[in-house]
Amino acid sequence: MKNLLFFICIILSINTIYTFAMDFDESYFNKKYSQIAEKIINYSKQNEQPYSRLQYMCDVFGPRLSGSENLEKTIEWLIDEMKKDGFENVRGEEVFVPHWVRRNEKCNMIYPRKTDIPIVTLGGSIATPKNGIKAQVISVKSFEELEKRKDEVKGKIVLYNYDYQGYGKGVKYRFYGAVIAAKYGAVASLIRSVSPKISQNLHTGMMIYEDTIPKIPHAAISPEDAMLLERLISYGKTPELELFIDVETLPDALSHNVIGEIIGSEYPNEIIAIGGHTDSWDLGTGSHDNASGCIVTWEAINLFKKIGLKPKRTIRVVQWTNEENGVRGGNAYKDTHQNEKHILMFEHDSGIFPPTGIRFSGNDTILSILKNTSKLYEKIADFNISKGGGGVDITPMVKTGVPAMSLETNDDGKYFYYHHSSTDTVDKIKKEDLNDCIAAIAIAIYIYSDLPSDLFN
Ligand SMILES: [Zn+2]
């Protein structure tokens, strides 16, 4: 009997999924939303405001490292502008964030010839002593090679000159490089900048220490210099470097997550949270990463107001603080809001390039329904709706079971040319791409906010 009941339940639930998928097929969406999608796309294509705001945010406030005055001025501006737009409940929610500062950094090669080796210290690194660190370089391609050669490391500067095979594979040397080198007695460590582009460009980013292992300074050099140092070693001319790094970790500073809402017309207590992160590294002006994410999410929702769309659910624009070196904003949002009913978390943090799709991680019924909406984007691009999606700031909420969504773009490999470097400036972003990203996000969020309630219960 128990088995029979179980079997009936399974049949009923399969049937429900099937019925939903049948009810919400492609023709349902085309009929109901094609005019709305067209209106969104047409409005967005001629909208001058998003790009002007992006330029203003990047140029006037500049880089926005956590703890900096620049970041808090940006946050004040965002709050003022969102109020002017007519968002509801606009506010800053307090978050204490790490406060690491870069003052000076220099590296001289003193053997086999004298020259400057430009460096950028990695975020969270300690300083060198005032009179610097002078040592020979040992160059390795991997942690495995370092382990094999651990007896040669004591008193040296370890250089991780790995072969770049994608960001994910390179970033471990930035993140853990100092810990592993210090374990074997290194006095400092350097990495080849984490980027596919060989153009004397320097890329910073977050690194960590472990309490039980001595802390050593950790910095990035250009791919060209990493290759030069390795070649010198191969000639038997092991380079000797002098490193001077003046950086400091100050006490945590007060920052804020920015919040502004459109209250849902039918289900005000069901929330879609959407945003990017306001902070950036201190090189360049954090334009792709991630002023652009703040602008596209904010302006996608602002567009609802401009063309008179009233979402059934509450759309909460959240611009998270401190994604880069702590994720304190994302964690604080979860601590404050996890008991409210969130039906979606959306983040855009992968730069602005032509949009190509939507990724969704949630239940498969919703995903199969969303796949039937792809035609609505055809005036932007041939759109692919697939499983996946997420973002660092929304991860704490997603871990509690809330579905995630994000926009896919075709960056042609270029995002990591600029990422965390002085070249991440607003001139790298095309207005047409920005406006197409906004239109795609607006369509995705509006449709999601309009889905039937049964899907979320
Ligand atoms: Zn980012």
Structure description:
The protein has 457 residues and is α/β, with parallel strands linked by helices. The chain has two domains: 24-98 and 252-456, Aminopeptidase (3-Layer(aba) Sandwich), CATH 3.40.630.10; 113-238, Glucose Oxidase, domain 1. The chain has 13 helices and 14 strands. The chain has helices spanning 2-23, 26-45, 49-61, 69-85, 143-148, 167-183, 223-234, 287-306, 328-337, 364-371, 395-398, 415-418, 431-449, and strands at residues 88-111, 115-116, 119-121, 133-140, 157-160, 188-192, 218-221, 240-262, 267-275, 313-319, 341-347, 355-361, 384-387, 404-409. Strands 1, 2, 3, 4, 5, 6, 7, 8, 9, 10, 11, 12, 13 and 14 form a 14-stranded mixed beta sheet that branches. The longest helix has 22 residues, at 2-23.
